[in-house]
Amino acid sequence: MAAPHAVDGVERSSSETGLILSDSSTGDVKRPQFGTRFLTDPRQVFQHNAWDNVEWTEDQEAAAKKKVSENSQPLPPEKQEEYDSRANEYWNGFYTIHENRFFKDRHWLFTEFPELAPQCSLNHESRLEGCGTDDGQQDSQVSLDQEQSREVADGDFPGSSATYRILEVGCGVGNTVFPILKTNNDPGLFVYCCDFSGTAVELVKINPEYDPGRCFAFVHDLSDVEANYPVPDGTLDVIVLIFVLSALHPNKMQASISRLARLLKPGGVMLLRDYGRYDMAQLRFKKGRCLAENFYVRGDGTRVYFFTQDELHELFTEAGLEKVQNLVDRRLQVNRGKQLTMYRVWIQCKYRKALVQPPETQD
């Protein structure tokens, strides 16, 4: 699937403002990534463009639930089927219109997901000890070394000689892929990227920064679990899902995540950032745009779902992955010129494939 619309506020905000994350299941406040800008005096709300870790009052949450409930009358089944069957057409149309002008490169990824950075890809053991443990836990187990990795990946496929492999699903026009290629100079790195939209993939391939020696872009429907990937199972170190799972029909999410999990090496991680329940984008949908509970269609025909932490946790654990991080990012964005406030809710997850697989999952 493709990347989300910038009008939803993701691309033009998360890379420019502070970010602090909290784990709502424990109440713990995590180490700030981009900043610690807290709104302690409501009278100062228009002093900055964004405020971090803004919790809602009970009245705000009740109003959000009421708004969603009022606009939750699903469209007729025939209309839902139309949006599902024509999904590829809608995304290709989006990229035909906007090409590569719509999104900003996601340089914030290296702060939020250090697994993508050079120091984390140089060797798998150091990544487990220092780069993929945002919950403060140190993984004392040792993963497959590079020689074992080569043996597992023995075969003739793009990047078969690489020692560290990253796949981004829903790459759009490359706003994650190209920052990785520019920033991560690990000679053993190979990056795969795919999108539902053939138009988007073609834009990636014609980009001057596309290097076939380090990257392989291909068209792929994440929801088609029977379709083959260009890499064998058990060969990827990292899979990246940035505002892409939400574009799938909810009924197809579990099978899609389970299929991706098979591609990971033992110790490999899946990284996700996506829309949270009652995000501003959800509250803006009017009647006549609801496809199913918390699932909507935009004016251009593309679709979006809004998650809870528990829903994502269930998807990943059902796929056999272990939680490293599952955080909610609540942010207050401010339009100082128009004196408007906008509440954003995003969820960020890291889930790891166990180093020792249960007997029933081993080949």
Automatic annotation (TrEMBL):
<keyword id="KW-0819">tRNA processing</keyword>
<dbReference type="GO" id="GO:0032259">
    <property type="term" value="P:methylation"/>
</dbReference>
<dbReference type="InterPro" id="IPR029063">
    <property type="entry name" value="SAM-dependent_MTases_sf"/>
</dbReference>
<dbReference type="Pfam" id="PF13489">
    <property type="entry name" value="Methyltransf_23"/>
</dbReference>
<feature type="region of interest" description="Disordered">
    <location>
        <begin position="1"/>
        <end position="34"/>
    </location>
</feature>
<keyword id="KW-0949">S-adenosyl-L-methionine</keyword>
<dbReference type="GO" id="GO:0008033">
    <property type="term" value="P:tRNA processing"/>
</dbReference>
<comment type="similarity">
    <text>Belongs to the methyltransferase superfamily. METL family.</text>
</comment>
<keyword id="KW-0808">Transferase</keyword>
<comment type="function">
    <text>S-adenosyl-L-methionine-dependent methyltransferase.</text>
</comment>
<feature type="region of interest" description="Disordered">
    <location>
        <begin position="127"/>
        <end position="157"/>
    </location>
</feature>
<feature type="region of interest" description="Disordered">
    <location>
        <begin position="61"/>
        <end position="83"/>
    </location>
</feature>
<dbReference type="GO" id="GO:0052735">
    <property type="term" value="F:tRNA (cytidine-3-)-methyltransferase activity"/>
</dbReference>
<keyword id="KW-0489">Methyltransferase</keyword>
<protein>
    <recommendedName>
        <fullName>tRNA N(3)-cytidine methyltransferase</fullName>
        <ecNumber>2.1.1.-</ecNumber>
    </recommendedName>
</protein>
<dbReference type="InterPro" id="IPR026113">
    <property type="entry name" value="METTL2/6/8-like"/>
</dbReference>
